[in-house]
């Protein structure tokens, strides 16, 4: 009766411990998720600001491009004007050359006839007064014409210089406008490229953070499912124990009734019958003592049932696989990763570390240990190793040499042994 009460109390302890592990684990994971959410919000805010800047730059670029079209149209118009000016300049140059040819020819004629005064000869050669007047008028006309030619030559030269200056000024204006536009466009393009690069970096960080958050959410869901499984298993165990206790109590009562009846019958018998009863009682006591000694050994039979079979067959299937710190299978294991992997095949979820598994287990003596219980070890400070007891003083565990079967009586394991713990009632 005391044993059943102890088991029920131990299972209650498991139930009370499970929420602690679950709450702490959920708190840590939820804190990480909240941090990821905060980081995502910050990244999204920065991206939104940069997108607004990019929109503004695109607007400026479009405005600059529109201005470029206007400048190009103006430049094309100026080019037409320049073309016309060049044609006018060519025409003026042609007239200048023609006038220069006339003046040169007249000067040459005067040099050829340098011994005579052409104008005087013309005047003195008049036949009469009327002819004289006509000749003087003709000479004046020639002189005035030469003077007009010289004046027009000067005006054409001045006009040529003025138009040349105007052409040069217009060309300089157009070149400055084009250079200004190109500089403005290049600056906007550089700013746009820089901000697009930052947006790409933020997008990459956002994708990484979202992936990390998804992983944390999945971890939280797994831990929630594991906690639910532990709670269900613990609840089922505490439901089964009272039934077993009731059956044991009923059996004990029946046995006491039978003993009482037997005692009554013996008291009414003869002395020989009394001696026979005494002898029988002595044998019964001896048998009871023998049974007690067997139950205190560590060679209790293995449980029967699909849960234990699934767990132990999974454990044996891992023999020879390598040890790796932090590994949970199926390619390699550390000690608690191995026990968790084996028990998971039976639908039982264990805490991740050996220390947590020890805390979650119901502590039992070596005489109560049976195959399927956990066995714990310490190398000086706290629980450091865990294995699965398989009976006969042996365990299957993941240690430095990989998954193997070891004897608890070996000097190494014997000096480090802490005790046994039960996490499942197979």
Structural write-up:
The protein has 426 residues and is of the alpha+beta class. The chain has two domains: 32-234, Orthogonal Bundle (Helix Hairpins); 306-422, endopeptidase domain like (from Nostoc punctiforme) (endopeptidase fold (from Nostoc punctiforme), Alpha-Beta Complex), CATH 3.90.1720. The chain is 74% helix and 8% strand. It is built from eight helices and six strands, in the order H-H-H-H-H-H-H-E-E-E-E-E-H-E. The protein has helices at 2-112, 118-124, 129-267, 271-295, 306-317, 335-344, 354-360, 411-416, and strands at residues 362-364, 374-378, 383-391, 394-399, 402-407, 417-422. The chain has a six-stranded antiparallel sheet. Helix 5 packs across helix 6. The longest helix has 139 residues, at 129-267. It is rod-shaped, with a radius of gyration of 58 Å. Residues 33-102, 150-210 form a coiled coil. It comes from Listeria booriae. Pfam families: CC_PcsB, NLPC_P60. Residues 1-27 form the signal peptide. InterPro entries: NLP_P60_dom (IPR000064), Papain-like_cys_pep_sf (IPR038765), PcsB_CC (IPR057309), Peptidase_C40 (IPR051202).
Number of strands: 6
How far apart are the termini?
A: 20 Å
Largest sheet report: 6 strands, antiparallel
What's the number of domains? Answer: 2
CATH structural class of the largest domain: Mainly Alpha
What radius of gyration results from the CA coordinates? 58 Å
Structural class: alpha+beta
Order of helices and strands: HHHHHHHEEEEEHE
Helix content: over 70%
Strand fraction equals 5-15%
Query: Which geometry do the CA atoms define?
Result: rod-shaped
Oligomer: single chain
Given as residue ranges, the uncertain stretches (5+ residues, pLDDT < 50) are 1-23, 240-297
CATH architecture of the largest domain: Orthogonal Bundle
The strand line-up of the biggest sheet is 1-6-2-3-4-5
Mean pLDDT across the residues is 76
- CATH fold title of the largest domain: Helix Hairpins
Q: What is the number of helical segments per DSSP (H or I, 4+ residues)? A: 8
């Amino acid at each position: 009766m005391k044993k059943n009460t102890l088991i029920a109390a131990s299972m209650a302890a498991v139930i009370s411990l499970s929420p602690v592990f679950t709450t702490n684990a959920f708190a840590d994971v939820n804190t990480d998720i909240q941090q990821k959410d905060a980081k995502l919000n910050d990244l999204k805010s920065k991206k939104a600001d940069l997108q607004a800047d990019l929109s503004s730059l695109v607007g400026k670029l479009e405005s600059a491009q529109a201005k470029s079209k206007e400048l190009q149209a103006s430049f094309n118009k100026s080019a037409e004007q320049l073309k016309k000016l060049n044609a006018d300049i060519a025409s003026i140059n042609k007239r200048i050359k023609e006038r220069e040819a006339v003046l040169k020819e007249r000067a040459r004629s005067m040099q050829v006839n340098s011994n005579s005064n052409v104008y005087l000869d013309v005047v003195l050669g008049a036949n009469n007064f009327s002819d004289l007047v006509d000749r003087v008028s003709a000479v004046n006309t020639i002189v005035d014409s030469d003077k007009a030619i010289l004046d027009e030559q000067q005006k054409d030269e001045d006009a040529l210089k003025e138009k040349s200056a105007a052409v040069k000024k217009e060309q300089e204006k157009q070149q400055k406008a084009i250079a200004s536009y190109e500089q403005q466009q290049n600056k906007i393009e550089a700013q746009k490229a820089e901000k697009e690069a930052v947006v790409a970096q933020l997008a990459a960080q956002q994708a990484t953070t979202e992936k990390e958050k998804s992983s944390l959410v999945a971890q939280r869901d797994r831990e929630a499912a594991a906690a639910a499984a532990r709670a269900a298993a613990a609840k089922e165990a505490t439901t089964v124990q009272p039934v077993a206790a009731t059956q044991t109590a009923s059996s004990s009562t029946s046995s006491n009734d039978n003993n009482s009846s037997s005692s009554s019958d013996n008291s009414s018998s003869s002395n020989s019958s009394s001696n026979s009863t005494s002898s029988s009682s002595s044998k019964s006591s001896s048998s009871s003592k023998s049974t007690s000694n067997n139950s205190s050994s560590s060679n209790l039979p293995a449980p029967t049932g699909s849960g234990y079979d699934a767990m132990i067959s999974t454990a044996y299937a891992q023999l020879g696989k390598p040890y790796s710190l932090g590994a949970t299978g199926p390619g390699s294991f550390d000690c608690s990763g191995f026990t968790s992997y084996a028990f998971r095949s039976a639908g039982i979820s264990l805490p991740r570390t050996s220390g947590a598994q020890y805390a979650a287990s119901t502590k039992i003596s070596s005489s109560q240990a049976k195959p399927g219980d956990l066995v714990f070890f310490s190398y000086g400070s706290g629980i450091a190793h865990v294995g699965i007891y398989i009976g006969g003083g042996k365990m299957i565990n993941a240690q430095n040499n990989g998954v193997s079967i070891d004897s608890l009586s070996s000097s190494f394991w014997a000096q480090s042994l802490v005790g046994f713990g039960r996490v499942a009632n197979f």
